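Hi R.,

Here's the chain you asked about this morning:
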Amino acid sequence: MNKRDIGQEILDGIKEIKNFKSGQTQLKIQEIKDPSPAKVIRKKLSLTQLSFASLMGISVRTLQDWEQGRRTPQGPAKALLRIAENYPEVFTKMD
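And the predicted structure, written out as tokens:
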């Protein structure tokens, strides 16, 4: 395991901010897009509503509400959907 030098990382971050403010560098920006609809992700993984809801840690009713447009995922649920979409092996790998 690689040991991190948190102090140095903080100093590097402060230096990067100073360089940005003085116009010497551009900050790295990465746009995070919303995940596809839950139903699309679930079908891509070939999972039932019950299985997908269980893996997401939500009730089937909540998943049905998302899939039928009555509610939209928020916060951590949105992040989990993003992971399920981009790294499906995390959800399909069963040990």
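The mean pLDDT is 91.

Let me know if you need anything else.
M.
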